[in-house]
Amino acid sequence: TPIKSSAASDVYKRQVLFGGSVAGVRAGGIVKTFAEKCYKNFGCAAFERLFFAADEKTVKYSGVLSPADQADSADEGGYIVLPASSGMRGMCAFKKHVYVFFEKEIFRIDARGAARNFSAERLTYGGGEIYENSAVSCGNKLCFLTDEGVAAFDGASFKNVTKSRIGLDFSALQFVRCAGAAGRYVCCFGGSAETAETILYNTENGAVSEIDCAAETVCAYGERLYVYDGGAEKEFCFGKRLHSSVSCRLERTNEDFSLSGVKTLKRVTLYGSGNAKLTVSGADGAHAYEIALCEDGVNVVLNKSAESFSFALDLAGGATATGAAAEVYAFER
Questions:
Q1: Global pTM?
Q2: pLDDT tens digits along 284-317
Q3: DSSP code, position 322
Q4: Residue 135: what pLDDT?
Q5: Distance, CA of 328 to CA of 326 (rounded, Å)
Q6: Is the pLDDT of residue 9 over 50?
């Protein structure tokens, strides 16, 4: 599994091999094995070192992997035993630290400088039970899934970004698959892969969307997100203009605008360029509108009432969508 270091100076290839042994590929293709096992494949690369789980409470780290020096470092690897009350559930690098996740605990390892100066601290965390393999460093947030919803950490405080979403159940999940890239956190969750739901969290503007996507196969490579759907590999497009020969669909399902009860959706304003088709589904079925996008905004008057709405925007080749807004009024029956 290729892993990109958080170090700004890291311009050489390095690889971590999990699922049996842990090794680093140095500049020039020299391979050094650091351990014959990795607990549950938890690991990350940070500060020119490899960090990985030796057991449910122990984090091991390699010596410095210098692109300029292929010889063994005088500052070799070691380990840190964390005083957690449960087994480890994830590990990832974020900003200037390595974070290790347990059931209801999070430890922050400061691994800058020489190994003798490494330190670990338990963060003040009062959220829900953390699901295994859900922690992802994504843009300006560290995101993970709990039995209370998706949590985001900015380095100082935690926030449940799905708290206002109605109808999402995060308790007793049996299936969880998460990935993040380009500031977007994709989380597929449910009682099984067949019944799973998928949400997309934009760490840049805080938007949370429910999407119709077979995200049980979602994975990240660099700043790109991919999914295997319908017998083909597909890429999530964020902020890109489509090639003239490529079309795509943007979807947002069961949108309640964080308001309870019946709402009247007066209008939707779309921004971008090129030709598109907007399909809005509500209590009275689906209605489609052919539109020509522009950066000044195109208004689509709807005047439809329902408790929630689903939207699909089909973009023709060469088109791009840069934003959307909705005018909504809520009232009680």
A1: 0.72
A2: 999 999 999 998 999 999 999 999 999 999 998 8
A3: E
A4: 97
A5: 6
A6: no
240 pLDDT band, cuts 50/70/90, is low
* Cβ neighbours around 258 below 10 Å, total: 11
Q: Is the pLDDT of residue 11 over 90?
A: no
Cα separations (Å) of 28 from 18, 35, 66? Answer: 21, 21, 11
The per-residue pLDDT for range 274-287, each reduced to its tens digit, is 999 999 999 999 99
DSSP string, 118-173: -EEEE------PBPTT--EEETTEEEEEETTEEEEE-SS-EEETTTT-SS---TT-
Q: Quick check: 39 and 56 in contact, CB under 8 A?
A: yes
Pairing of strands 224-229, 232-235: antiparallel
What distance in Å separates the CA atoms of residue 85 and residue 102, rounded to the nearest whole number?
8
Separation CA 313–CA 187 (nearest Å): 21
User: What sign has the CA pseudo-torsion 226, 228, 232, 238?
Assistant: negative
- DSSP label of 36: S
267 and 302 Cβ atoms separated by less than 8 Å: yes
Closest Cα to residue 143, out of 72, 77, 94? Answer: 94
Q: What share of the chain is helix, strand, coil (3-state, %, to 5)?
A: 5, 50, 45
Per DSSP, the three-state class of 40 is helix
φ, ψ of residue 116 in degrees (nearest 5): -65, -15
Q: Please say whether the beta carbons of 309 and 281 come within 8 A.
A: yes
